[in-house]
Design a protein that fits this description.
Neuraminidase, mainly beta, single chain
Length: 312
């Protein structure tokens, strides 16, 4: 990294962060440490030379857009972990935080108030804990008010500067459509009157900050593998369901977004087929869907997603 900076000084250039989304870790039949990067300028894919600190699946991701992305928790060959890996968007270098999650967990969710703090909501073993990491120094605190119930296999997205949302998942009594909302002003929690259309475990989520958030896919007792994409308007938290869903019914996909432009749902397990490398892109201008010509570097599920969309 030092040599990169020295070379930049000699050449008279300064490294800059490329606006891009990242899919990290997951399962391809075995756990992997792979991190795929999609440049938002042309949706081209590269794979980082440095992956996660360990091959991990069923982990969560969030980002301090413009600065760094974080992956946390998950399951490794040694069991569930508390590990938080941090990827600096300039240079894509990786470090591992000295303080990880408050407990070892997998199938957890994450979201972020970009510029201020990121949040990880517990997965399995089932607890309601929400850990908060201050971006100023990466210190961890645990919210006094956690999820409305102990829940795993959930997903998170955020209206940066205002509130974050954790939706779907599984509780001790079964799958739920619950969406919990955390106000960033004081970390207080409310639960939306309207939950997800179905009660899915392992949905994906992403957001067009300032406008709307999206939950997609998962598995429901009522409908099986889902193509459904539910959209929540941040102005009033009302829910609509997109006319065009995912390109295939799947569980365990992962979301990330170029806020203001488009959101992406990648990977997952397609019912009756198996893992997929497909990445679906939803234009925020009209919610139309396309599928990228170049998908993930391998068919994969149970990843973490995070994105650098610049200043939010």
């Amino acid at each position: 990294m030092v040599s990169t900076w020295l070379n930049s000084l000699v050449s008279g250039t300064v490294p800059v962060a490329v606006l891009a989304g990242y899919y990290a870790g997951g399962g391809e039949g075995s756990r992997v440490a792979t991190v795929d990067k999609f440049a938002f300028s042309d949706d081209s894919r590269t794979t980082l030379a440095i992956g996660l600190s360990a091959a991990t699946q069923q982990l969560a991701g969030m980002a301090n857009s413009g600065t760094a992305g974080y992956t946390g928790g998950g399951n490794t060959s040694g069991g569930n972990v508390t590990t938080i890996d941090k990827f600096a968007f300039v240079g894509d270098s990786r470090s591992t935080l000295g303080t990880g999650l408050s407990s070892a967990q997998y199938a957890n969710g994450a979201m972020a108030n970009s510029g201020t703090a990121g949040y990880f909501a517990d997965g399995y073993p089932l607890v309601a804990t929400v850990d908060k990491f201050a971006f100023s120094d990466d210190s961890r605190s645990t919210l006094g008010t956690g999820l409305s119930a102990a829940r795993g296999q959930l997903s998170g997205m955020a209206n940066s500067g205002t509130a974050g949302y954790f939706g779907g998942g599984e509780e001790s009594g079964g799958r739920v459509g619950t969406v919990d909302k955390f106000a960033f002003s004081d970390d207080s929690r409310t639960t939306l009157g309207t939950g997800l259309t179905y009660s899915p475990s392992l949905p994906a989520a992403m957001a067009n900050s300032g406008t709307a958030g999206y939950f997609a896919g998962g598995y429901s007792d009522a409908a099986g593998y889902l193509t459904t994409v539910d959209k929540y308007a941040f102005s009033d938290d009302s829910r609509s369901t997109l006319g065009t869903g995912l390109s295939s019914a799947r569980t365990n996909p992962v979301g990330m977004a170029n806020s203001g432009t488009a959101g992406y749902f990648g990977g997952g397990y397609v019912g009756g087929v198996g893992r997929t490398a497909a990445v679906d892109k939803f234009a925020f201008s009209d919610d139309s869907r396309t599928t990228l010509g170049t998908g993930l570097s391998a068919a994969r599920q149970d990843m973490a997603g995070m994105a650098n969309a610049g200043t939010l």
